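Handout, page 2. Input:
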Amino acid sequence: MARNTEKTPKKPKEPGRLKQMWQVFKMTRRYDSHAVWIMALGFALPVVVGVVLALLLAGGNVFGIVMWILAGVLAGLLAALIILGRRAERAAYKQIEGQPGAVGAVLRSSLRRSWTGSEMPIAVNGKTQDAVYRAVGRGGVVLIGEGSKTRTTKMQEDERRKVLRILPNVPVTFINVGPDAGTVPLHRVPRTLGKIKPTLTKPEVLAVSNRLTSLSSSPLPIPKGIDPMRMRPQRGR
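Output:
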């Protein structure tokens, strides 16, 4: 019996952790010119604090001085990485801002635990690709319009009537993400949701979410939300 001489193609090797961090850093620096300086400041401040504490508290003990400085360096690295993560997320969202499904990406990957939302919209204008998404949390029901505010407001009003028909005592809030003045930037959607005053308990949130599933319909003709944390920096031409 003849042997199969064809080799099974190997799966492409995923980049290591350091290489991934370097790719994220390059992408962030490309879209956020202030990121490097903010990271440098975030690193330098804990180091300076560590040196000052070493001089004040170590009492000339070399081991104590080294430990305080080392603690400052480690704290600086942690601060720089936290800043990189936040600025990278903002830069990634900046790339997809204005595209259909961008709000869905935020609802899928960046919501806090007290809020739930679907990456698929509950209403879509097939001609303009304007869409309305729904999030449920302690603050009630939030209808997020994606696109022109003048067009999505009517869609939000239609969806609010549907919600109030089955949940008359639940507060419904509008948020608009789009090119118009007064709208919420894409990366600020989670923070805006967090500022809404809580009016429901956790069991009530679950009950509201279950009731709203009855309003769900078949998937709408709009792309799913892009995952900004899986985006790769574009290569220069």
